[in-house]
Design a protein that fits this description.
alpha+beta, single chain
């Protein structure tokens, strides 16, 4: 399980896993608007992480970011960390 500490959103943390073929699974937002964040988690379940990044990156709410944007940033960090560990 990967953990990402959010910045500038009501949610405080995002938990997620990525399968071997780069599909997102088990997304959980800690804090924030429960209904909306459960919906986002269900919509991205099984999606390719590059597609999720492309779809959600840059969506703004408060502080020039959003929970969706923070998920995109979490996935970008995951990819960067994975590349650096190769």
């Amino acid at each position: 399980m990967n953990t990402y500490i959010t910045r500038g959103t009501c949610s405080r943390q995002i938990l997620f896993d990525v399968t071997e073929d780069n599909k997102l699974k088990d997304v959980k937002f800690i804090g924030g608007c429960s209904g909306n964040l459960q919906a986002i988690a269900k919509l991205v379940e099984g999606q390719d992480i590059d597609q999720v990044i492309s779809t959600l990156k840059g969506i703004k709410c408060r502080s020039n970011t959003s929970c969706g944007d923070q998920l995109a940033r979490a996935l970008e960090k995951y990819k960067l960390d994975k590349e650096q560990n190769l």
